[in-house]
């Protein structure tokens, strides 16, 4: 037997038994897959099934007890591993074997369970996945087709027996799987027999009697088989020619997607074909003997489908019944439904208008979005431009800052110099004041000296003091210049420090501006990012709302289509029913008209006959004729009443049909209307939601744009304020410093000019004093020269004339010197005073003036030296002392000990 898993209308599969010279069993090496042989069949099955829709499997039954007893030779050898069947043949004592390949080979030891698990269970799984599959058994009579498909049905306490075939196992597997999945399902089973080109529903109880009757009527020929046995030839052929089709249709509720219910529908046909050798042998299909078995099977399947369609149509026809009392109600419901449909159409129109409005709103929002995007782009461009301007301004600001730094440095230096100069000018002024006081005191002293002394010695001391004062003044002037230099340096340092301070202030302002700019830029960027995010969000929301609207539209369209289809079906049904009613009415009218015609004809014939008879016997027949007419009319009216009753019944039946159809349509319409209403409510709700969300998002977007605009304006105003304030601060500081510098400069100039004037005045005074002292010195020198000449003459005279009176002269000289010394003795501790207190030459000369003229020659010589020596009083005494010691030892000696020589 071979089992073929063949394609059905949509897909698959088959089964076949026993090798025979059939097209199925031709070697097909292209179907073999060596690489997949070793692997598990069940695991590879799905992959193969994707490519191969028809599989041919072979099952070889074991030899029966009878065959074993008869020692029937084996003619077939199965190789399950290689999936090959070898037909053993010996021709002329030569072994000529033929090898056939199949998709799967089951040997004699294969059990029902393993065959089912390997070959049928995957197909049942695919049926439960929603595919249509067919398994049919094909082979010669007695090869085990029925055993394989049905098997032993003996039940062992609820479990399937080991010999149970494909059909009970498939049913059991389907129930087990669906119950395990706790699925919501329905299963329909038909068991049809195709017998003598007629279909019999084996599960329909009322048809059994007829088929049994039909079969009982069939002639059976009783024949001898030549071996002493009797064969029921006719019965055998007819029985083996029957095909059986066991169909399982499964509807499984898959899941709900929204309002829709998904239902999987799968169908499994398990076909047990008639013995393959009997079709040609029976003679019933002589014309088809040459037809290939594929064509035959196709024929059979088409016929099976046709029969199934007939059965379904018959069932549907018989199942539709509309009671009369529901007709009026359904009519009313129909009207209400029509109104409802109108209302729904109006609502649908309104919905469509609303959808159009939403679409326009969406388009306008898209346009607004585009505008916002363009504004954002403009804003970006402006921002970039302002950033560029800001960079330029920053560069200019940096240049200005560097210039300011330079100027500030110079200003700080100048300020420091000015301060130092002022300080130094003050010190110098003090110095000059003290110097002037000193000079004043000096002049006072000088005047005093001049007044007190009146000689060249006081003038010399005054000159020395003047020189020392001038030196001091020069020192003070140089120190003042030094201090001025220091003051200038200090001013320079002060200027640099001030400039550095200014620089630090400006740099801090610059950094503050930069920070402010950075913060502003980051804020602007964050606001731009916020705007972009909100735009993206808006896009997303618009996209979602559009999708939802589209879904809602699709849903409403679908429901509208369903409603219109249902309405169309309903009106078609009504048309059909109306046409049926019209047919019935026409039929009844034609029947009535026929009957009336017949009646008229009969009436005319009878009237003619009666008229003829009436001529013969008017009085006798007239009464009979009247009674007969009355009876005839009564009969006609009765028959008409019966016909009308039938018609009324038919009409009632048709009206009940219509009522049923309209109630069904009404229900469906109501359901669809509710569904449409629900969908519409959901759509409107989602649209309102999306509108609210879009409005809020747009509001947020506009708020963000306004905020960013305000931030930008704030930043710009802050930057400008900062620039202005920094510029004003810098300008004010610079002006202040410049004014301070100017004031300091003025002060410095005035102080320096005052000091200069004072110094010049002092210098002029000193110079005048010096000149005065010089002239005085010259005059005193001249006087002293004259006096020295006079003294020298007198000394020469004194030396020449009188040496004796030296003692007296010495004593007198001692006395004079002692007196002079006493007069000129210095009371102060200063050495100058001691110098000044040295006895002057005039006093000596005055003393000499009292001596005779003999001593004048030696005095003249000495007087020249004394006159010269007077110009340098400090040296003079010393030189005079030496001279007296070297040139006139007597004089020196006498000067040291005047009284000694004299005595
Ligand atoms: N694999 C098997 N193991 C044991 N017995 C089997 C096997 N296959 C078939 N048989 C037996 O062989 C006999 C014939 O089988 P079956 O009636 O199923 O053949 P068939 O092909 O259906 O014949 P037909 O075409 O006349 O219907 C039966 O008695 C059955 O029990």
TrEMBL record:
Give every Kinesin motor domain span: 53-287
Among the GO molecular function terms of this UniProt record, one is: plus-end-directed microtubule motor activity
Q: SMART domains from the entry?
A: KISc
* One GO-annotated biological process of the protein: mitotic spindle assembly
One GO cellular component term of this record is:
mitotic spindle
Where is region (Disordered) located? 1-48, 855-903
Which positions does UniProt annotate for ATP binding?
139-146
Which named protein is this? Kinesin-like protein
* Species name: Linum tenue
């Amino acid at each position: 037997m071979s089992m073929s898993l063949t394609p059905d209308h949509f897909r698959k599969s088959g089964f076949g038994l026993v090798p025979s010279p059939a097209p199925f069993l031709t070697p097909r090496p292209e179907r073999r897959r060596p690489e997949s042989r070793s692997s598990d069949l069940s695991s590879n099955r799905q992959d193969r099934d994707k490519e191969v829709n028809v599989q041919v499997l072979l099952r070889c039954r074991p030899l029966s007890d009878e065959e074993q007893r008869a020692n029937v030779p084996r003619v077939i050898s199965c190789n399950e591993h290689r999936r090959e069947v070898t037909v053993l043949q010996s021709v002329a004592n030569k072994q000529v074997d033929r090898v056939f390949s199949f998709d799967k080979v089951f040997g004699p030891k294969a059990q029902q369970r393993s065959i089912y698990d390997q070959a049928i269970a995957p197909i049942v799984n695919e049926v439960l996945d929603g595919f249509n599959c067919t398994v049919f058994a094909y082979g010669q009579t007695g090869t085990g087709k029925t055993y394989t498909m049905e098997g032993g049905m003996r039940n062992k306490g609820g479990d399937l027996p080991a010999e149970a075939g494909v059909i009970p196992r498939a049913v059991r597997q389907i129930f087990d799987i669906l119950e395990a999945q706790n699925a919501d399902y329905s299963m329909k089973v038909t068991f049809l027999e195709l017998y003598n080109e007629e279909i019999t529903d084996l599960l329909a109880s009322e048809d059994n009697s007829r088929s049994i009757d039909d079969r009982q009527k069939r002639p059976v020929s009783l024949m001898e088989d030549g071996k002493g046995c009797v064969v029921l030839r006719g019965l055998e052929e007819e029985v083996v020619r029957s095909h059986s089709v066991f169909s399982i249709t499964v509807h499984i509720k898959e899941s709900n997607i929204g309002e829709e219910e998904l239902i999987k529908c799968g169908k499994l046909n398990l076909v047990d074909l008639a013995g393959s050798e009997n079709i040609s042998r029976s003679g019933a299909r002589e014309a088809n003997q040459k037809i290939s078995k594929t064509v035959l099977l196709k024929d059979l399947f088409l016929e099976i489908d046709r029969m199934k369609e007939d059965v379904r149509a018959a069932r549907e026809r018989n199942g539709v019944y509309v009671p009369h009392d529901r007709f009026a109600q359904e009519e009313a419901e129909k009207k209400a439904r029509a109104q409802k449909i109108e209302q729904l159409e109006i609502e649908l129109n309104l919905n469509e208008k609303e959808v159009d409005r939403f679409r326009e709103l969406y388009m306008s929002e898209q346009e607004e979005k585009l505008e916002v995007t363009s504004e954002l782009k403009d804003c970006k461009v402006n921002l970039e431009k302002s950033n560029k301007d800001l960079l330029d301004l920053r560069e200019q600001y940096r240049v200005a800052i560097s210039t300011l730094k330079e100027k500030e440095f110079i200003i700080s230096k100048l300020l420091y110099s000015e301060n130092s100069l002022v300080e130094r000018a003050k010190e110098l002024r003090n110095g000059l004041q003290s110097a002037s006081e000193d000079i004043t005191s000096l002049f006072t002293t000088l005047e005093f000296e001049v007044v007190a002394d009146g000689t060249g010695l006081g003038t010399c001391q005054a000159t020395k003091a003047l020189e020392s004062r001038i030196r001091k003044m020069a020192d003070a002037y140089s120190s003042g210049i030094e201090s001025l230099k220091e003051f200038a340096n200090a001013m320079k340092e002060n200027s640099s420090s001030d400039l550095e301070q200014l620089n630090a202030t400006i740099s801090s302002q610059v950094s503050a501006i930069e920070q402010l700019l950075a913060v502003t830029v980051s804020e602007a960027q964050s606001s731009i990012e916020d705007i972009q995010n909100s735009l993206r969000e808006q896009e997303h929301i618009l996209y979602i709302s559009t999708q939802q609207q589209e879904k809602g539209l699709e849903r409403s369209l679908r429901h509208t289509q369903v409603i219109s289809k249902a309405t169309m079906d309903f009106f078609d049904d009504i048309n059909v029913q109306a046409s049926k009613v019209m047919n019935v009415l026409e039929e009844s009218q034609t029947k009535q008209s026929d009957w009336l015609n017949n009646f008229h004809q009969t009436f005319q014939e009878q009237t003619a006959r009666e008229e003829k008879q009436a001529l013969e016997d008017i009085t006798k027949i007239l009464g009979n004729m009247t009674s007969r007419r009355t009876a005839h009319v009564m009969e006609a009216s009765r028959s008409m009443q019966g016909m009308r009753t039938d018609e009324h019944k038919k009409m009632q039946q048709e009206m009940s049909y219509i009522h049923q159809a309209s109630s069904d349509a009404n229900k469906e319409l109501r359901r669809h209307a509710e569904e449409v209403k629900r969908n519409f409510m959901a759509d409107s709700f989602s649209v309102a939601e999306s509108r609210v969300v879009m409005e809020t998002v747009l509001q947020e977007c506009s708020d963000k744009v306004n905020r960013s605009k305000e931030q930008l304006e704030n930043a710009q105003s802050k930057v400008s304020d900062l620039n202005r304030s920094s510029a004003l601060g810098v300008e004010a500081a610079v002006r202040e410093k410049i004014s301070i510098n100017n004031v300091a400069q003025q002060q410095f100039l005035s102080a320096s000019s005052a000091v200069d004037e004072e110094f010049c005045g002092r210098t002029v005074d000193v110079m005048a004093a010096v000149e005065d002292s010089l002239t005085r010195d010259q005059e005193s020198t001249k006087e002293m020269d004259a006096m020295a000449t006079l003294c020298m003459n007198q000394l020469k005279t004194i030396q020449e004339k009188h040496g004796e009176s030296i003692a007296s002269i010495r004593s007198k000289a001692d006395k004079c010197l002692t007196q002079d010394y006493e007069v000129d003795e210095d009371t102060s501790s200063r050495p100058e005073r001691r110098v000044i207190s040295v006895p002057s030459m005039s006093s000596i000369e005055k003393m000499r003036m009292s001596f005779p003229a003999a001593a004048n020659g030696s005095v003249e010589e000495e007087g020249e030296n004394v006159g010269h020596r007077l110009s340098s009083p400090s040296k003079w005494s010393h030189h005079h002392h030496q001279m007296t010691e070297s040139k006139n030892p007597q004089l020196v000696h006498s000067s040291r000990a005047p009284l000694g020589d004299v005595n």
